[in-house]
Write a structure and sequence with these properties.
- By secondary structure, the chain is α+β, with helices and mostly antiparallel strands.
- The protein has 5 helices and 3 strands, in the order H-E-E-H-H-H-H-E.
- It has a 3-stranded antiparallel β-sheet with strand order 1-2-3, covered by helices on one side.
- It starts with 10 loop residues before the first helix and ends with a strand.
Length: 175
């Protein structure tokens, strides 16, 4: 495991120290690394019970030459949006093929149960699948803080600052 924040210890050593101090066994189930060459990594913890301790944690990597404090603010808002809306991917073409196939199967079953003719069911299926992709892709989701806009619209309004979302991570307790 890699280094733990700015400490000289790695994650495994910090985990071992915590186990010794608390007296409870712990294990690291998931870990991700985000990086930016020029920008910020902003975060948000939802249902926070203590500093950096809550039910949902989100990190967003923003690449830009813009003012770092403004980027942090935007990154936090994006992280809040991601915590609330749980997108599956940044863009629709990045959604896992297995998820798309499963959704297609569910839509097809639903339309069969409704007794729709095959030609009509196929057209409805395409529309429903496109809506599913739009609702589960960060860039095409309705912006939580102003639902008449999409996330991509919010970013394009700031495009003079040339802001790009590299990636994001959303962890929820129990997943």
């Amino acid at each position: 495991l890699g280094e733990y924040f700015d400490s000289e210890k790695n994650v495994q050593e910090v985990l071992t120290d915590k186990i010794a101090k608390i007296g409870e066994n712990m294990s690291l189930r998931r870990a991700e690394v985000l990086s930016v060459s020029n920008g910020v990594i902003a975060g948000y913890v939802h249902n926070s019970v203590n500093e950096n301790l809550g039910k949902i944690g989100v990190l967003v990597a923003l690449e830009s030459n813009a003012d770092k404090s403004a980027l942090k603010k935007l990154g936090r808002e994006l992280a809040m949006h991601i915590a609330a809306s749980n997108p599956l991917a940044l863009n629709s073409d990045e959604i896992d093929k297995e998820v798309i196939d499963k959704e297609q199967q569910l839509i097809t079953e639903e339309l069969k149960n409704l007794g729709k003719p095959d030609d009509i069911a196929k057209k409805i299926s395409i529309g429903k699948l496109n809506k599913f992709k739009e609702e589960n892709s960060l860039m095409t989701q309705d912006w939580v803080m102003e639902p008449k806009k999409k996330v991509k619209d919010v970013l394009s309004e700031l495009s003079k600052k040339d802001i790009e979302i590299n990636e994001f991570i959303r962890f929820k307790i129990g997943e």
